[in-house]
Amino acid sequence: MVLHEQARHRAPRCPSDEDAERHGPDLTKRGVGLKVLAGEGASIDTTTANGRLIFAIFAGLAEFERELIVERTRAGLASARARGRQGGRPFKMT
């Protein structure tokens, strides 16, 4: 699979990280690789050992980033609840 340029300015991703984790190994078994031709991800070519290493590192960093976002969101919601804030849209009489 060849991409002209990586669209995002972060770790290279499929439509979602879950898709990459789910379909990546299957595509590799079928002999399908990923090669980015231009942009920040141009060093990625999963048909080589170096490219697979870089892709794995970026995938790990993306997973770490997702987990941090979840932790911060949960901590923020717990803090708001402790201060008596209720989530959601305010009730409105119609």
Automatic annotation (TrEMBL):
Annotated Gene3D superfamilies: Resolvase, N-terminal catalytic domain
Domain Resolvase/invertase-type recombinase catalytic, chain residue ranges per copy: 1-84
Pfam families: Resolvase (PF00239)
Renumbered residue ranges of the record's region Disordered: 1-27
GO MF annotation, one: DNA binding
InterPro entries the record matches: Resolv_N, Resolvase-like_N_sf
Protein name per its UniProtKB record: Resolvase domain-containing protein
Species name: Acetobacter senegalensis
